[in-house]
Amino acid sequence: MESGLTSIQPSTQFQLITNTMDMIVAISGASGRTGYRIAEEALDRGQTVRLLVQPASKLPPSLSGCDTRRLNFSHLPQLVEALQGCHGLVIATGARPSANLLGPFQVDTQAVQQQVKACKEAGVARVVLVSSLCSGQLWHSLNLFGLILMCKGWGEQALERSGLDWTIVRPGGLKEEETALEQKELVVSGANTQQQGSIPRRLVARYCLECLSTPSTIHQVLEITSKPRRP
Known about the structure:
Distance between the termini: 19 Å
Number of domains: 1
CATH superfamily: NAD(P)-binding Rossmann-like Domain
Largest sheet: 8 strands, mixed
Strand content: 15-25%
Strand order of the largest sheet: 3-2-1-4-5-6-10-8
Number of strands: 10
Oligomer: single chain
CATH architecture: 3-Layer(aba) Sandwich
CATH topology: Rossmann fold
Structural class: alpha/beta
């Protein structure tokens, strides 16, 4: 199905919460190119954010005043402590291309598994995971980098089996463009229905936050790309 951002209608209950400063949205991987945009968009909505990043991560100036927790994502007690008091988590951690072929397993599988465990212990029921188009597919060229799509699929499985209120967002190829976004139209579909396409990271960020506040997306795998909006 084709969809614009406005097609998702947040629940009344969540709207009431997000109109106060009591709503805390945790964003892991907030130093990444999608993660920092999620944080910026949440701030624009008036939400309070808590950024979960690695000790050496650098944040953009736009997030300099945010509550930031620097931690080791493999250390469960640190994650649990960092998530205390949060109402939701957007997982935007993801392995970056490098010589470390274990990176995808460490980041896209193990780190996600740890975050899922930490949410259960900290009482954070609502989770949105940023994954990838073609996640879980074995015969794909992207798997030349440490079986990254398989690792993302294993991370998804941990969330799906968690008992939490989860949504998995699988964007297509991520673009850095920041202009003329209003001329883009989202293409949204269910699991394993899109094989190619791209989308600006800013639109992914906005869509993840819409999902976070929309009960109808709970327990859904949603694949998103974008295309030029029709006149």
